[in-house]
Each structure stands twice: as structure tokens, then as C-alpha cells.
Amino acid sequence: MLSAFLFVAGALAARVHPHQFDSSAYAAEDVIERDFAIIGGGAAGTYAAINLADQNKTFTVVEVTDRLGGNTRTFRDEATGASIDIGVQLHEDIPIVRDFFKRLNSPLAPFQPSDFGNPKYYDFDKKVALPNHTRPNIEGDYVAVLNKYPFLDDLNNLPNNVPKDLLLTWPEFAKKQKLSPASAEAGLLWPATPGNPLDTTALAIFNDGNHVELAEYSGAAVRSATHYNSQIYDNALAELKEHVLLKSSIIAAQRGSSCKDGVRLVANTPSGKKLIKAKQLIIAMPPVLDNTKYFALDQKEHSILSKLSGKHYYAGVMNNTGLEAGVAYTNVGENTPYHVAGLPGVVEIAGAATPGYFFYWYNSVDPQTQEEIEEVTRNTIKWLQSESGVEAVEPTFQDFADYSPLHLSPPTRDIANGWYGKMKGLQGHRNTWYISALFVAGSTQIWNNTRNILPDIIHAAQS
């Protein structure tokens, strides 16, 4: 492991030239001095930026895409006025959510189960309609586990001595704990659970389907009143534009070991290279090695972050499908354990609030291209047209999103060896903080965790 790290570090060091961090090597307008550098403009990065702005702190957000919002994505058709959320759909109806939407002038509305359409069930692999299938509901035994292990909601609180049963795969856990058939099946049916749920640990299933998720699906949820969840991020960008570098990435970094050393970052931007000098660095992107390789990781950081990986999940929008409006065409296995849908494949094709538009989610164990995913989705729609007896029309794909890596986690053996505690130990190390979706699954909890850690980050910058 050490030799591998030294090779990586050496290779990176060979590409870093000391003059890159010298202000005199840049035009004055290309040197940015701030209290904080935020890498990533998704849920965590945007929430941190708005809160820092409200406290009169200075910052720069570096975002690799052309927008803020991360996994909150909305397709907007300016010609027709269509607005379709294809990423984050719901938020728990609690003050932090209402306050953030209000702060960014975006109206909320109560979630209605009909927002997702009435479900009809099919086995997309076998090409079989399942008109008698019903979705089971979570029962009390599932909730009893969440209540017994309150750290399942937020793995920041996971003990180093993780209960062994929680590291079993879900089928093993359900059998050993004698979960009711309804809870055992329903626990695998959260719509955005990526990968093969039959290989997923009980820890991950409960962390995804936690108290927040249960509250949302029981009715204590809100969503954008205009089906435009991205509005908060569009409004944030309009407000923070001069402090945001879009289509930009970090290509070199110096991070000191003491607070007074701060950090220096070289950003590659559409207008050339910029030198960012900040007191503290906030990593608000998935901190997998592919994303952090230019941050000159030390041995401690590398040994922890190298364990981290995510899963593959995709979404898109289409129209001209010929499918029935107000229906969620849902993929379930006819004869599979817990009726788990086959992989890779479409999870669901759901009618959007705008007539004529549908969005879909797609799950795969291995990475797939947009062309491969849209071909499978097209074939699924063609079969649904035939099965439903509607006109065979060619669907038009309007938008596509790759949410990989989703639901980051280390291997099970590393969880057992205290990985989450080690990750928490990196907070503040070399003036660097991590606020992305490492310990929680949803935007609501990401905002809450970011709010909780910001005082420590601000204090470090003042030291």
C-alpha cells in the first residue's frame, strides 16, 4: 500500500511546478484570495456558500459542470414551459428545508403520492405485465431496527464497533432478524437505491431508507411548487455568480499542516488558470480518488479515500412515448427474491407533471453509456406500447443525467475496521473539510450536516 501511494504521490508531484503557486506568475485578476475554497456546487457546496455569504465570509466555489445543484436536476423546455425534476424529488417538511427554499425565493408545496403517478407493475426483463402485484409497506419491525440503532440515519455517528448483523447482506439480515416479508421486500424498494440490492449491506439499506425517507413517503414531505427543484440552485447561482467558477476544476494544490498555512489551489477555468489562496478548503464533491488526485494527498488521506467508491445510476427525460399519462411504469421481478428488478435496466418510467413528458431512472452494476441506456429504455417503451395497445411511436429523448458515483461507501471489511471513524478524523486535516454525501443519502440531511459543521470550519479559518 505504501509503495503504491509513493508512486501515485511521486507521479503527481512530477506534474506540479512550485511556480504554479506563486502569485507573481499570474495576472492580478487571476489571483483569488478568499476565506474558503469550496470544491463542488451541489447540495452541500451551495448550502455552504449561501450560509457563508449570509455571515459575510468570502469564498470561491469551483464547479466542474455548467450549473449548480449536483444531483438535483430539472429539465426545462423553454419553448413549451415544461419543467420536470429528474433527480432529487422530495425533501422532508422541516424548518431547514423551508428556510432554505424561502431564502432562495422558491415556493414549496406538499408532496402528493399522485405526483409520481399511479403505479403499474411489469417485469421489464421477462416482458410480462403483473397486474396483480402490489407494493408492500414497511412494517413495525423495520422501524424497530432504526429505533434500536439511531446512528443508521447518519453514519457520522456510526460506532467503530459496528454491529456485525448490520454488515450482512440484506437477505442475510432479513432472514437472521426474521423481518416480516413486507418489510424485507419494501426495504429494497427505495427508488434511488443503486446497484444490486441483494448484495447491499443492511447498514446501507437502512442508511438510505432511514427515518427521513420514511417520513417523506408517509406524507411529511415537500417539493417545489412548480416541479422545479433546481430553482433554489439557479437562484443561488444568480446571487453568487461572481464567486463561482463554472466548468472549472482543480489541477494542483498545496495544503499546509497548520491553520496559518492555508491552502493554494490552481484552477483550470474557461478563462485560463486561476490561483486560489484560501484559509480553509471545503470538499463538497464526491472525494473519490479520481476527483481528489490533484490535491497532493498524504499517506493518511490516501489510505482512507482510496477505499471509497460509488455506484452507477442514471436518469433522463423523454416525450412522444405514447404511454398513458399519470402512470408510473415500475419494473419488478416476477419470480426474483423480494421481486428485485433485473440489472441492468430501467427502474421506472413515470409521467411528469407536464403533459406528454416522462422521466425514467436506470440502474446498473457496471458503467454504461448514454447510448446504451437510451437504447434499452427505447426498447422498454416500445414493448410497453405494444403491451398497452397504443400507437407505436418513436420516443424523443430530451435530457440525460449520470449520477455516478452515487451512494459512496467503502468495502464492508473496511467498515468493520472503523473506516467511518477514520473518515471523520480527516475533518480539518491539512485545512481540509468534507461535507458531501458520505454519511447520509439525501439533500435534506446533507444540508443539516453542513449547517452543523460550518461553525468548526469558520473557527478554523479564524485561528
Automatic annotation (TrEMBL):
Task: Report the source organism.
Answer: Penicillium coprophilum
Key word Membrane present in the record?
no
At the top level, the lineage of the source is Eukaryota
Name of this protein = Amine oxidase domain-containing protein
Q: Record keywords: Manganese included? A: no
Q: Name one Pfam family in it.
A: NAD_binding_8
Residues annotated as signal peptide: 1-18
State the InterPro entries in the record: FAD/NAD-bd_sf
The UniProt keyword set, sorted, is: Signal
